[in-house]
Amino acid sequence: MKVASSVKTAKQNLHQKGQNTEVLILLIQDLVDKNYPFLYMDDLATKARAILRTQGLRVIPIIDYQKRLIGVISRTNVMEITSSISPLKVKGIMANPKFMASMGMTGLDALRGMIRSDEWCIPVTKSPQDLSYMGMLNLTAFIRDFLKQGSSKLSYPVSKIMSTQLVTCSPEDEVDNVWRFMQEKSLAGCPVVKNRKLVGIVTQQDMLSSGASFPAFESKKGRFKSPSKISSIMKTSVVSLKSTATIREATELMLEKNIGRIPIVDEKTNLIGIVDHEDIAKILL
């Protein structure tokens, strides 16, 4: 009864401030994915690369043999592994999480931390002191809950939240150059444009899956490969929307297609904006 009473009081206080009470009150334990894949510190880095490639994940948590979180591996960490038989272990390339949540944390604190650190998927531990690994938290969990609530904000046009400071590439750009540029700009995906028109999209996952991300690396015969072009790996069947589409439409489409971003185009298919998971998550705060 004390818990129910405190939650009710908190909801009333937040409602008076005009904040999204449902998202703010949600606890991480209600959102965490406990079945998310993880690796042990002595697993091979090539295993991490295979999991990221086949399952389309952004990051994999790394744990020790007491099942405590000790690091994470992202696509960036595995992209420079050039051999399929490399003996490198994950503990040799893992990084510290930029941000992580604990089971007792509120949805507000977690979501703010994820947006502040520009992380779409973060590890969850039992508590700030006890680093026992509990699962992963994805922005998608917040977005699904937002959609379920039926917020009035879902009826807003995507033009209200889309990014218009666009970073693009062309079909003729070299894959390794675009990859490095995406790393500099902290981008997981990049629209492909020719004469202002949207002609495709390329993501980190496309690069990882293609095996063409760093074509300047030596081949098995010791020679250098010719640079691959973005046109060879980009997706040309691009899911896009007009600026008049609603946030609900964009949200449902991203969840249905399991994509992280949607380019926004005008009537002539000129690229005018882009909406991603983070743009939607920000309106929950």
Which sheet architecture does the biggest sheet show? 3 strands, mixed
Q: What's the N-to-C terminus distance?
A: 28 Å
Helix fraction bin: 25-40%
Q: Order the strands across the largest sheet as they lie in space.
A: 1-2-3
Structural class, judged by helices and strands? Answer: alpha/beta
Structure description:
There is one protein chain. With 285 residues, the protein is α/β, with parallel strands linked by helices. It folds into two domains: 2-149, CBS-domain, CATH 3.10.580; 153-282, Roll (CBS-domain). The chain contains ten helices and eleven strands. It has helices at residues 2-16, 21-25, 45-55, 75-78, 107-116, 139-149, 175-184, 204-210, 247-257, 277-282, and strands at residues 39-40, 59-63, 69-74, 101-102, 121-125, 133-138, 189-194, 197-203, 241-242, 261-265, 271-276. The protein has a three-stranded mixed beta sheet. The protein has a three-stranded mixed beta sheet with strand order 4-5-6. A hairpin with a 5-residue loop joins strand 10 and strand 11. The radius of gyration is 21 Å and the shape is flat. The model is unreliable at 1-18 and 215-224 (pLDDT under 50).
Brief summary:
The chain has helices at residues 2-16, 21-25, 45-55, 75-78, 107-116, 139-149, 175-184, 204-210, 247-257, 277-282, and strands at 39-40, 59-63, 69-74, 101-102, 121-125, 133-138, 189-194, 197-203, 241-242, 261-265, 271-276. By secondary structure, the protein is α/β, with parallel strands linked by helices.
